[in-house]
Sequence to fold (85 residues):
Amino acid sequence: MHVSEIEALLRDALALTEVHVKGDGSHYQVIAVSDMFDGMSRVKKQQAIYAPLMDKIAANEIHALSIKAFTEAEWKRERKFLLPS
Fold:
């Protein structure tokens, strides 16, 4: 599974402003940005990201997934820490 495939699955399924996926083999880190996350608990955010990837997780193409989900306002504050230029 390639990071671009994971990004495409998430973009197709969710209304994301930005998505960043890093990883190799079967371990991936996802940063997702969308105002759809506004008011959601951390668990609900993670469930929203997991949902479109469940087939790949079930097929063991994705073994481990680290998820960070932000609203656009949160991302403006956090991106400098998570995506150094």
About this structure: The chain has one domain: 3-72. The CA atoms of residues 38 and 55 lie 26 Å apart. The chain is about 40% helix and 25% strand.
